[in-house]
Design a protein that fits this description.
The complex is a heterodimer. By secondary structure, chain A is an alpha+beta fold. Chain A is about 25% helix and about 25% strand. Chain B starts with a helix and ends in a 7-residue tail after the last helix. Classes of the chains: A alpha+beta, B mainly alpha. The interface between A and B is large, with 39 and 42 residues.
């Protein structure tokens, strides 16, 4: 279908921005015939004869929306049994870009987004956006109006868009819609879930249509937040991880009830926090009695910074031609704030009666990227392992068994 | 009454004395056998705790018992049995020395491949 067929006396359709499932233009760019300003025209989800009173109420509320961070609706027009919604065109980038955002950037976006949502949730009548995803959030880095975030495309039918089949939300929205919204009961907490999902997609660099792949296998609405965030390179604070976990709670009652509560909680949270690592002992001295002896020592790694999670791994600093294979850790990787590691030294690969000095390095996400521990190994002499014989028992056995023939000879005599 | 008790005690003592007189050597022999087996087990378990292999833990108490029997038979007038017990025991002492030498030889052979300080 030619896009020009959607034009009328007020608007001239220019380009298709988005097509529907049947290939028909769903959203297109238009030019106002009166002031030549650019506009976005979007087809409403239901045809004219199916518009419900709830949809009319939301449409009226949407058209009355005003404020920073919202693109106001300009009106509607009818075209061949369909209703089209007109809004201003925004020359800005959406958040649906293929990159991983820095946690501080994400925090700023979260704050701005929640501020906008707070404003629309506290007005009368209160509105649930119902369609928050990166494609509908525009980012204006040099905004003169204060808020850098602009929300578009409010859902006019947030209630049960997918009928009774809860397993098949649309792919583009899959992952951003909580269970209660799919079931037809959206609340302000539903928008919090969507905001949480947006933040998770930005932090993990996951595209919107693939976000559902991050959900757990058991529950399509549940995100293993901590697991996902710990895979990222940035050292995120556990407070922020908990906050995001609350935003993305499967159960609506476990989430922040509205945007303002979530915003208030986020204000006091640091996103990035580096652990402070302490390794003890800082020097290990091991002495072998004999050649080939296996030596062991314990190393304790502690994180002194609350609200952070320590991650790191041990490695032996290579020394000349020695790769350090004779030094082993029971587990190379440390994941936790208090870990005890077992260090094993195999002196079978070393010369006898010598002293070996090596350096162990603990690489971590802490303030000190590498913590060095000195290892001194003194090898033993060349003698077989001393295994004492039970001399007392052997002597007793010798004496007692010696009396057996004597006793037998007495009997026979 | 008291006399009756004394009579019964005398009969009991006499019975025990008779049993000990006729079966005494057999009882002593049995006790020595039990003691030998107990000490064999004790030596084996102590050696196992010290890290010896199971085979060594079984052979050593048997050889020592054999050596002890040899001494006993020598005392009883059968001196030819003494070497039968002592030769395996001595071979074990020699084997430990051979093992030490092999251990040193193995180290000398691989010394170039060992890691330098």
């Amino acid at each position: 279908m030619d896009v020009s067929s959607f034009s009328n006396q007020h608007y001239k359709a220019q380009a298709i921005l988005k097509r529907g499932i049947n290939g028909r233009p769903k959203t297109f760019l238009a030019i106002s015939e009166t002031n030549e300003s650019k506009l976005v025209v979007k087809q409403m989800p239901s045809p004219l004869f199916e518009v419900s009173s709830e949809m009319q109420r939301r449409l009226a509320a949407f058209l009355s929306l005003e404020g920073v961070g919202i693109i106001p609706g300009l009106g509607t027009y009818k075209h061949s049994q369909e209703i089209y919604l007109i809004r201003e065109y925004l020359d800005a980038r959406s958040l649906a870009v293929n990159r991983i955002f820095h946690p501080e950037e994400v925090r700023n976006i979260a704050m701005a987004l929640l501020e906008v949502l707070s404003a629309i949730q506290y007005q009368i009548p209160s509105i649930v956006h119902g369609n928050i995803k990166p494609e509908n959030i525009f980012f204006q880095p040099n905004s003169s109006q204060g808020s850098q975030i602009v929300l578009t495309d409010f859902s006019l039918t947030p209630v049960s868009q997918w009928g009774s089949n809860l397993n098949f939300p649309r792919l583009s929205s899959l992952g951003f819609v909580p269970l209660e919204q799919v079931a037809g009961n959206p609340t302000p907490a539903s928008d919090n879930y969507a905001v949480g999902a947006v933040l998770l997609s930005l932090l993990s660099g996951t595209a919107s249509h693939q976000l559902y792949t991050l959900t757990s296998e058991e529950n399509a609405y549940q995100y293993p937040v901590q697991e996902i965030l710990l895979q990222q390179n940035f050292p995120m604070s556990s407070y922020f991880m908990d906050w995001l976990g609350t935003m993305l709670a499967t159960n609506e009652g476990d989430r922040f009830p509205d945007a303002r509560t979530a915003l208030y909680a986020l204000r006091h949270i640091q996103v990035i926090a580096r652990p402070c690592v302490q390794v003890s002992p800082s020097e290990i001295y091991l002495q072998a009695e004999r050649f080939g002896e296996q030596l062991q020592a314990y190393l304790e790694v502690r994180n002194l910074m609350p609200g952070t999670m320590l991650r790191g791994k041990w490695r032996v600093t290579p020394y000349l031609n020695d790769a350090g294979n004779w030094i082993q850790f029971d587990t190379d990787h440390v994941f936790g704030n208090e870990t005890t590691m077992l260090l094993s030294v195999d002196t079978e690969q070393l010369l006898i009666d010598k002293q070996y000095v090596r350096e162990l390095g603990f690489q971590s996400n802490s303030e000190r990227p590498i913590v060095a521990v000195s290892l001194v190994v003194k090898t033993g002499s060349l003698k077989l392992p001393a295994r004492p014989l039970p001399v007392l028992h052997l002597t007793g056995l010798l004496v007692v068994s010696g009396f057996l023939p004597i006793a037998l000879s007495i009997i026979l005599w | 009454m008291r006399e009756m008790k004394l009579v019964f005690a005398a009969i009991l003592l006499l019975s025990i004395s008779t049993v000990v007189y006729y079966l005494g050597p057999y009882l002593i022999c049995a006790l020595i056998l039990i003691g030998t087996l107990y000490l064999c087990f004790g030596v084996a378990s102590k050696m196992k705790q010290s890290g010896y292999s199971l085979m060594i833990c079984l052979i050593v108490p048997l050889l020592v018992t054999l050596f002890g029997l040899g001494i006993g038979f020598t005392y009883s007038g059968e001196p030819l049995l003494l070497p039968v017990g002592s030769i395996p025991l001595m071979s074990m002492v020699i084997y430990s020395q051979v093992q030490q030498r092999r251990f040193v030889a193995h180290y000398q052979q691989n010394i170039t491949q060992l890691i330098k300080p």
